Amino acid sequence: MNDVIETILNHRSIRHFENKALTEEQIKTIVTCAQAAATSSFIQAYSIIGVKDPVKKKKLAELAGNQEYVEKNGHFFVFCADLYRHSMIEEKENKNLEVSLESTEKFMVALIDTALAAQNAVIAAESLGLGICYIGGIRNNLEEVKKILNIPDRVIPLFGLAVGYPAKITGQKPRLPFEHVYHEDEYEPNKEIYLQQLDEYNEIIANYYLQRTDGVRKDRWTEQMAAMLEKQTRMYMKDFIQKNKLDLR
Predict the structure, then answer these.
(1) pLDDT band at 212, cuts 50/70/90?
(2) Which of 77, 100, 101 is nearest to 155 (CA)?
C-alpha cells in the first residue's frame, strides 16, 4: 500500500462542490498529468477544453440533463477525441492521410488516448484533495456542445469532468468482485459460475442500497443494468461521428 494506491482505491463520484475555483496552477498540474498518460504510437489524439464561462457552463449543464454540478464546481473540463490536428499535419507535410484518419482503428486510438489521459487527470486531482465526477451527459446533444465550444470536424467531445473541493462526500459503490472481472489464461467458460457471481454481486449491491437509503431502495445490479440498457439512448451517435469525418472506413 502507498499513497497512489490509497488515492485510487478511495475514488468516488462527487456531485456537491464548494463555491471555490481551482487555481491556474492546479489546472495546469491536472492537464500536465493527463498529458503524461500513455498514448498509442505517440499520436496524442485528444484535446481538453476547460470551461470557465458561467454562461457556457450553464448551457452545458442543461444539455447534460440539468446536472447542477456541471455548472457549479471548481473547474469543468471537456475531454475530446481529436484528429483535427492530424488533418493539419496532412496539409503541413503534404501527405494523403485521409484514409487513415477516417479509419475505425484511428477512431479507437483517439477514444483510448482520451480515456487514458482523463484517468490520469482524475488521479492527479484526487491526490490534490479534490473531488471529481465524469459527465457522460454532454453526449446527449453533441451538435449543441460543438457549437458552444466552437469544435471543428474530426473532434468529438466524449465526456466532461467536473472537478472541485468536495462539499459532500458520499459512500463508495461496491465494484464487481475480483473473480468476475479478472480471468486467467482464458475467459471464464462456465456459464453457471458466471451467473452465480452475478447473483452474489446482486446481493452486495442490494444491501448497499438498503443501507444507503434506509430501506427505500434495494436494487439488484442486473436489474438496474437491464432497465438502463433497455432504454435506447443517444442512438444518433454513429451518424454524428461519421458526419464529423471519423469512423468511416
Answers:
(1) confident
(2) 101
- Amino acid present at 5: I
Element (H, E) at 80: strand 75-82
- Rounded CA gap, 56 and 15, in Å? 19
- 3-class secondary-structure state, position 228: helix
Residue 97: is it exposed, middle or buried by C-beta count within 10 angstroms (0-12/13-18/19+)? middle
Q: Look at the pTM and tell me if it is higher than 0.90.
A: yes
Nearest to 81 by CA among 103, 108, 104, 110: 110
Q: Which residues pair with 79 in a beta bridge?
A: 48, 159
Band of residue 170 on the pLDDT scale cut at 50, 70, 90:
confident
> In this structure, are residues 132 and 122 in contact, taking their beta carbons and an 8 Å threshold?
yes
Residue 119 binned pLDDT confidence (cut-offs 50, 70, 90): very high
Give the integer Cα–Cα distance in Å for 112 and 152.
Answer: 20
pLDDT over 90 (residue 171): no
Strands 155-164 and 131-135: antiparallel
CB 162 within 8 A of CB 17: yes
Contact 79, 158 (CB under 8 A): yes
d(CA 114, CA 120): 10
